[in-house]
Amino acid sequence: MQVRFNIVRQNPNSSPRIQTYTLEVNPGNTILDCLNRIKWEQDGTLAYRKNCRNTICGSCAMRINGRTALACKENIGREIERLNKIAAQANNSKAPQQIDSIPEMTIAPMGNMPVIRDLVVDMSSFWANLEAVEPYVSSEARQIPEREFLQTPEEREQLNQTGNCILCGACYSECNAREVNPDFVGPHALAKAYRMVADSRDTKTESRLEKYNQGTFGVWGCTRCFNCNAVCPMEVAPLDQITKIKSEILARKDESSSQPIRHRKLLLEFVKDGGWIEERKFATQLFTYSFAGYKELAKLLPLGFRMLIRGKLPKKFVPSKGTKEVRSLIESIQKLNKQSFSKKPDKN
Hints:
There is one protein chain. By secondary structure, the chain is an alpha+beta fold. The protein folds into three domains: 2-117, Beta-grasp domain (Ubiquitin-like (UB roll)); 123-252, Fumarate Reductase Iron-sulfur Protein, Chain B, domain 2, CATH 1.10.1060; 259-340, no CATH class. It is 47% helix and 10% strand. The chain contains 16 helices and seven strands. It has helices at residues 31-42, 76-90, 124-132, 139-142, 153-157, 160-163, 170-173, 176-180, 187-198, 205-212, 227-231, 238-252, 259-274, 279-287, 291-309, 323-343, and strands at 2-9, 17-24, 61-64, 67-70, 104-108, 115-117, 120-121. A five-stranded mixed β-sheet has the order 2-1-5-3-4. A two-stranded antiparallel ribbon has the order 6-7. A hairpin with a 2-residue loop joins strand 6 (115-117) and strand 7 (120-121).
């Protein structure tokens, strides 16, 4: 079958352009196989990264038809099927849509990183942000030469999921928070950060959590868009790891510690009380814990006034009919979290 490849090409300090190549391929051919053939048979100037060709090294991450993936993992057949499903959903049809006589693949460089050339990006910020979370066991723990660092199977199992990360950059490429906030370290760094928090050998848990709790640098900079989980080729689920760090922080802090913590705890309390959020009380209680908070609340007054004029602000709050069930679910989860937290080994 013939497939048309629309590849976004770019030189330093120049605008991107699309160059099209047509290949005769098999459905089982990977995107990397096709890029190799384009380079070897049609255009030797095409630049991209590759290495293992076996979903291990993460070198060949790029945007394939709108989402970041590994070129050595995705093949032509699956991509055509995925595009057909998207087209069917867009047309509100359950039946697969017929593709054009020549299917098209759009290949572009990863996002949130400057392009060096074609599909090769500068990953300096990616590595710098990883280093910023100190993704290694603390030096204090390494200064004990008399014995090995023994771990139970249960303790080691805590590290398996985050240990699968191959640092391909897919989550970083698709991160909405990173796109708008250059201070945010990124989902890859925080997934590695949780590995250190969960590691029974590490002695810096408290200082790490304090660092990850700072402003929008750490976990509170995440917008919870789920993109990182959706594109991760190794099922590390960075968003899940960020949520675990948040839980560790919330277990140690009271609601007056900071606005993000107060936001999270108030949210749970309001949902437990009424099944959903009572916006009027939520806004006022969120910002009235400090002088700086009152200043933030003052900024919301014009918005509240406009909502009131347009009838967007409810006159009274009506609790959800399922309030008891919602409260029961939340309390059950909180109880399980406390039990899990209490079972963790004391690193001190």
